[in-house]
Design goal:
Blueprint lengths: L2 E2 H8 L2 E3 L5 E2 L1 E2 L9 E4 L16 E5 L11 E5 L2 H16 L4 E2 L4 E2 L10 E2 L4 E2 L4 E2 L4 E2 L4 E2 L4 E2 L4 E2 L4 E2 L4 E2 L4 E2 L4 E4 L4 E3 L5 E3 L5 E4 L4 E2 L4 E3 L5 E4 L4 E2 L4 E2 L4 E2 L4 E2 L4 E2 L4 E2 L4 E2 L4 E2 L4 E2 L4 E2 L4 E2 L8 E4 L2 E3 H12 L1 H14 L1
Parallel strand pairs: 4-5, 5-6, 6-7, 8-10, 9-11, 10-13, 11-14, 12-15, 13-16, 14-17, 15-18, 16-19, 17-20, 18-23, 19-24, 20-25, 23-26, 24-27, 25-28, 26-29, 27-30, 28-31, 29-32, 30-33, 31-34, 32-35, 33-36, 34-37, 36-38
Antiparallel strand pairs: 1-3, 2-7, 21-22, 38-39
Catalytic activity: a UDP-3-O-[(3R)-3-hydroxyacyl]-alpha-D-glucosamine + a (3R)-hydroxyacyl-[ACP] = a UDP-2-N,3-O-bis[(3R)-3-hydroxyacyl]-alpha-D-glucosamine + holo-[ACP] + H(+)
Subunit structure: Homotrimer.
Function: Catalyzes the N-acylation of UDP-3-O-acylglucosamine using 3-hydroxyacyl-ACP as the acyl donor. Is involved in the biosynthesis of lipid A, a phosphorylated glycolipid that anchors the lipopolysaccharide to the outer membrane of the cell.
């Protein structure tokens, strides 16, 4: 795909300084810019690179005034980072704008789909599936019976969506994701052997949810496992049965959330966090990486450690943790004197 500086400026509502007809066909970092590349300058510490970059076009802040001669054409915008992100999104939409049904696939006669539908080779779409407009299902995807995929859903290669799952508008499901597998429900019988508890619920992803590669989201025992609108999950996360995650919460890789836990809105959860089941975590909570959460958490708390302490208490305690060998040595010396 080839675009001119003027075309890009029109898309971003920016102003061109330089050659409006210069063309670009790829994206790059500013320090790695080459002829034909488009880049951006948002962080002031990279300013020196704008005088040496070979990129044909650079997106900058409207207030930027060069101190030396430039060889790159500028597009001036209100926020370079946001504008570049918008451009990346547009680029992805164009690149991934596949349409049509490839062969071989299985598409149930009772499934329905809207306009601009793409179904990649070796995909399976079960009975009574309802698919909206502009949905993209890549090769080797499994979509079970009675699933609902709303407008603009993308499921990348190898994704698995079990029956009765409901996925809202503009959701992205990356490769290797499994949505709707049975929750980890077993109960011991009289002999101490574990008997499976049927998992009869489903999973609901509201609008604008993104699920990273290799993540698993279990169906509810009864009712629904729910990810509210705007939730963003990293790769390799485990969400257990009947969990509910509030709007616009973000969770980093390798986190595990046990069954029936409720997490509030606008939370930020770091990587490798472990959260026990049947607790409630409030809104705007921040949990540092590798923390273990075993209790209810109030709104606006920041936690670290395992078991987790308040962030301030953890940092104060850590000063003593790392000095424990010295402290013990001093105590031993004192004890010997007495």
């Amino acid at each position: 795909m080839i675009f001119t500086a003027s075309q890009i400026a029109g898309l971003l509502e920016g102003d061109v300084e330089g050659d409006p007809e210069i063309a670009v066909h790829k994206l790059s970092k500013i320090e790695e810019g080459e002829v034909g590349a488009l880049t951006f300058l948002a962080n002031p510490k990279y300013t020196s690179h704008i005088y040496t970059t070979k990129a044909s076009v650079t997106i900058v802040n409207r207030g930027f005034v060069p101190e030396h001669k430039l060889t790159t054409t500028l597009i001036k915008v209100d926020d370079p980072y946001t504008s570049f992100s918008k451009l990346l999104e547009y680029y992805n939409q164009v690149k991934n704008n596949k349409v049509g049904i490839e062969n071989p696939v299985f598409l149930s006669e009772t499934a329905t789909y809207g306009e601009d539908f793409y179904l990649g080779a070796f995909a399976y779409v079960g009975s009574n599936v309802k698919i909206g407009n502009n949905v993209k299902i890549y090769p080797n995807v499994y979509v079970g019976d009675n699933v609902v995929l709303d407008d603009n859903v993308v499921i990348f290669a190898g994704g698995k969506v079990y029956s009765e799952t409901i996925i809202g508008k503009n959701c992205v499901v990356h490769s290797g994701v499994v949505i709707g597998a049975d929750g980890f429900g077993f109960t011991p019988d009289q002999n101490g052997e574990y008997v499976k508890v049927p998992q009869t619920g489903n999973v609901i992803l509201e609008d604008n949810v993104e699920v990273g590669a290799g993540t698993t989201i279990d169906r509810a025992t009864l009712g629904s496992t729910i990810l509210r609108k705007g939730v963003k999950l990293d790769n390799q996360i485990q969400i257990a049965h009947n969990v509910e995650i509030g709007e616009h919460t973000v969770i980093a890789a390798q986190t595990g959330i046990a069954g029936s836990t409720k997490i509030g809105k606008y939370c930020k959860i770091g990587g490798q966090v472990g959260i026990v089941g049947h607790i409630t975590i409030g809104d705007n909570v921040k949990i540092q990486a590798q923390s273990g959460i075993g209790r209810n958490v109030s709104d606006n708390e920041t936690l670290q450690g395992s078991p987790a302490l308040s962030y301030g208490d953890f940092n104060k305690s850590y000063v003593h943790f790392k000095n424990l060998p010295k402290i013990i040595s001093r105590i031993e010396v004192i004890e010997k004197k007495h």
